[in-house]
Design goal:
8 helices, two-stranded antiparallel sheet, 10% strand, six-stranded mixed beta sheet
Length: 439
């Protein structure tokens, strides 16, 4: 009785209510504001709910409120609840963060109690396990394996006299998922490399945000019209957690054949397939444009495009043909980012017998044999069969002879990009990708 009287005395001095908490704690029912502490604010919340006949205070699950609910609440406050200490502040109490890399559920998370983002993917452990404070679920997320989320909204209808459906198909998504699953990006605790990517194209099972956009515009302006669609169709709770992609016919003008456009180190991109909408073309372009959001450029760490030794779908040389798996710098269909293993190429002193791998010869000047002596040539051009003397830029990215470098894309992803994103700010860097299969 003394505890009950003390409870009411304390609450009588409270001037701030914490009612209607957006989540409840799975670890202690009495932690009504879900901050992993049992304190005065939980008492205040309980009594206000009780006085208002709110079943949030139904602690004995009887369907109505009485003294037994008060008693149950006091018992939890008094010691029935487990130790809720949360050292890293990720909303997961230390006792559930088992620090062994084995994620089972919210009571055995495998995560590090001293690290709020154990897998360093930009998503806090508590958000991945419990959903966000705003009630946003992150389906299939794991605190011990890197995750990326993308909402895919699309147009379908008649575009410039053609009937098109730009919704990503299961086959498209499967190629993208496999690409990221096979990534060389490490995970904690010595777990297998790779990234779990989740594309929401309205397929269900927790992924119901992706939807068909109204009408069938021939082109939409990026990013003014893009942002209008985003504001109308993108759940604001997803901001900072999901990338947002629109799949459309063209962007900016009705003659633009570009396959897409994206923010660099941001969260927005478009895939514009015009009339070349195949499984390979769309999946490769998703990975390419998303790559810009992840901080990658057409030369990996730089804008220098078409480098024969940069083995990535970020490279126009490999966006549609896929990356090179045989060492001849010709695409072999594999969807992948570069792993940074090819040698540097000095265009002022090319050694044909080294090729791009250091051991597989490439006949850069196409004279029919492997030259013994080094020579200069501009080789970051449209195809392996195109090269020009230094100073000539015809059909090449540039006119200069430089040292061309590969780049380890998978291990240079910007995992803090979502917190840095500057939606609707003019200074945000945008990459317009002037590449399509027929170019």
């Amino acid at each position: 009785m003394f505890r009950l009287m003390l409870l009411f005395v304390l609450v009588s001095t409270c001037t701030q209510s914490v009612l209607n908490a957006q989540q409840t704690s799975p670890y202690c029912q009495a932690d009504l504001n879900f901050d992993n502490r049992l304190d005065f604010f939980d008492i205040s919340t309980f009594l206000e709910a009780y006085n208002n006949n709110d079943l949030q205070a139904d602690f004995n699950n009887s369907g109505h409120l009485n003294f037994f609910d008060v008693s149950a609440f006091l018992n939890q406050i008094g010691g029935e609840c487990p130790d809720l200490t949360d050292t890293d502040g990720d909303r997961l109490p230390d006792f559930v963060e088992t620090d062994n890399g084995i994620y089972i559920d919210e009571f055995s998370t495998g995560s590090n109690p001293l690290e709020s983002d154990t897998d360093n993917d930009g998503l806090q452990d508590g958000d991945e396990v419990l959903g966000t404070r705003d009630g946003l679920d992150l389906p299939e997320a794991s605190p011990v394996r890197k995750d990326i989320y993308v909402e895919c909204d699309w147009f379908e209808g008649v575009f410039q006299g053609r009937v098109e459906d730009y919704r990503p198909t299961p086959a498209v998504v499967a190629r993208v998922v496999n690409c990221f699953n096979e990534a060389s990006t490490p995970n904690p605790y010595g777990l297998p490399d790779g990234i779990s990517i989740h594309l929401d194209y309205g397929q269900g099972n927790g992924f119901t945000g992706g939807n068909q956009l109204p009408d069938s515009p021939d082109a939409i302006f990026f990013d003014f019209e893009f942002n209008l669609y985003k504001e109308a169709h993108f759940d604001s709770r997803r901001k900072g957690y999901y990338h947002y992609a629109i799949f459309a016919n063209r962007y900016n003008d009705t003659d633009n054949g570009s396959s897409g456009v994206a923010e660099i180190n941001g969260d927005d991109f478009m895939v514009t397939m015009v009339n070349y909408n195949s499984t390979n073309n769309m999946s490769n372009t998703i990975v390419h444009e998303l790559g810009h959001n992840l901080g990658l450029r057409h030369g990996g760490f730089e804008n220098r495009n078409r480098k024969p030794n940069y083995n990535s779908v970020m490279n126009y040389r490999h966006q549609f043909p896929g990356v090179d798996t045989t060492g001849d710098s010709v695409g072999d269909g594999l969807l992948d980012y570069s792993r940074g293993i090819n040698i540097d190429l000095d265009e002022n002193s090319l050694q044909e017998f080294e090729g791009v791998t250091g051991s597989f010869a490439i006949d850069w000047n196409r004279n029919g044999f492997t030259d013994v002596f080094p020579y200069s040539a501009n080789i970051n051009c449209n195809s392996i069969s195109t090269w020009r003397p230094c100073g000539s830029g015809s059909n090449c990215y540039d006119s200069t002879c430089d040292v061309l470098q590969d780049h380890d894309d998978w291990n240079n992803i910007n995992w803090s990009r979502l917190s840095q994103s500057s939606d609707r700010q003019e200074e945000h860097e945008i990459e317009k990708c002037q590449n399509w299969p027929g170019k």
